[in-house]
UniProtKB/TrEMBL annotation:
Transmembrane segments: none annotated. This is UDP-GlcNAc:betaGal beta-1,3-N-acetylglucosaminyltransferase-like protein 1. The keyword Transferase applies. It comes from the Eukaryota. The lineage of its organism: Eukaryota, Metazoa, Chordata, Craniata, Vertebrata. Pfam families: Glycos_transf_2. The keyword Transferase applies. Gene3D superfamilies: Spore Coat Polysaccharide Biosynthesis Protein SpsA, Chain A (3.90.550.10). Residues 64-157 form the Glycosyltransferase 2-like domain.
């Protein structure tokens, strides 16, 4: 996993002159409940200051920075320098867990321990030297277990919300999506292929809430542990709050742990979560997209979901698909085989599960959707 920079804490939130204002903000956000998952807009550093202000009325409680490490020598100096440069005035510690690194990561962490502790930041170091790493989920759990803070701030390889990318031109569509989500969309767009609406390494929550949700999945390589934890957070009534300031950099590289997770694995979890959390609230629904993605969703639904929730139609703008008239689900043991009508989107009835990728049609799809004056979360959900 690569290492991000931890943006500096904003003095204006912790200085004596603004302390009262900071407490007022923190009370407002704290009353949302302990299930607040916060993320920050990134810039060149990483700042926990705003997160502390929005999650914690008790400014003297210790904040633990949770840092899993595996073969991160290329980025560790920059990462740990950003921790050192924090100007947060509260109590803060760094909890590092090394997951069997075979490079110089352990030595680099050792060099930084004295420097950080000299600046008043206690450092807790754990790890193992087994032949193989045990995975990101295991490392995060161990780093949390050895820490002592009331609040947990996760620091890891892919950082940001309202993100500035490193390199700047990487995954442009994803960056636009994560930067443009409105507050209510942090909950309504949790079913998309992009994953959590606040990127994992920017999460901030109380230790009590972390314990309530449960540990990260420790299945190792290929397990989307952040997505699974996020889903469990939502199942247990957790809120999602974002601090809208550019505070973190999201570093993209080919060896990031996220690349070990298969798309099919994520798809399966997304479909099950959709069936569990959304479809039971609708008597019937329409799948927007009679093409590959829409048909794949239909086939992926359990027979119970197709019957109970009632896929009444597909809709599209493609005249060829519409003229065909219906989609027949051939790969099924059901008799008779389901035949689902294909309609023009203006003739279809909401609610919709939308399987059209955003930001790919020059705004045509988005214009069509807006023209229907629907309410996201009530009349439609994105599953693209």
């Amino acid at each position: 996993m690569s290492m991000p920079c931890l943006p500096h804490f904003e003095k204006r939130l912790t200085s004596r002159g603004n302390r009262k204002r900071s407490k007022s903000r923190s009370k407002e956000c704290y009353e949302l409940g302990e299930g607040c998952a916060l993320s920050w807009k990134p810039y060149s550093g990483f700042s926990v200051g705003q997160a502390v202000a929005c999650a914690n009325e008790h400014v003297d409680d210790r904040e633990s920075i949770i840092l899993p490490v595996h073969n991160a020598e290329e980025w560790l100096d920059e990462c740990l320098e950003s921790v050192l440069q924090q100007d947060f005035e509260g109590s803060m510690e760094l909890s590092v867990f090394d997951d069997a690194s075979k490079d110089n990561s352990v030595a680099i962490i050792g060099r930084w321990k004295g420097k950080l502790e000299g600046a008043g930041i206690p450092v807790v170091i754990g790890g193992h030297d087994s032949p193989s790493p045990r995975g990101v989920g295991y490392s995060k759990n161990q780093a949390v277990a050895q820490s002592s803070g009331t609040y947990l701030c996760f620091l890891d390889s892919i950082i940001g919300c309202q993100v500035r990318r490193d390199p700047p031109d990487s995954t442009a569509r994803y960056t636009r999506w994560i930067n443009q989500l409105a507050p209510d969309q942090l909950l309504t767009q949790v079913f998309t292929s992009h994953g959590p609406t606040v990127i994992m390494p920017t999460w901030f929550c109380s230790r009590a809430w972390f314990s309530h949700v449960g540990l990260f999945d420790q299945g190792g390589q290929g397990v989307p542990e952040d997505l699974l934890f996020f889903y469990e957070h939502l199942r247990k009534g957790g809120r999602v709050v974002r601090v809208d300031q550019s505070l973190l950099v999201y570093r993209y590289h080919l060896h990031a742990a996220t690349h070990s997770v298969l798309e099919e694995t994520v798809w399966t979890h997304r479909v099950r979560f959709l069936e569990e959390q959304a479809l039971p609230h609708w008597a019937t629904f329409t799948i927007w997209n009679a093409g590959k993605q829409g048909r794949r969703l239909y086939r992926s639904l359990t027979a119970a979901s197709r019957c109970k929730a009632g896929v009444v139609a597909f809709c599209d703008v493609d005249e060829k698909k519409i003229k065909r008239g219906f989609y027949c689900h051939e790969d099924t043991q059901e008799r008779p085989k389901p035949r689902v009508p294909i309609l023009h989107f203006r003739a279809a009835r909401p609610p919709f599960v939308i399987c059209v990728k955003l930001d790919l049609t020059g705004g045509e799809f988005e214009d069509n959707l807006r023209s229907l004056s629907l309410r996201e979360g009530w009349d439609f959900l994105h599953f693209s």
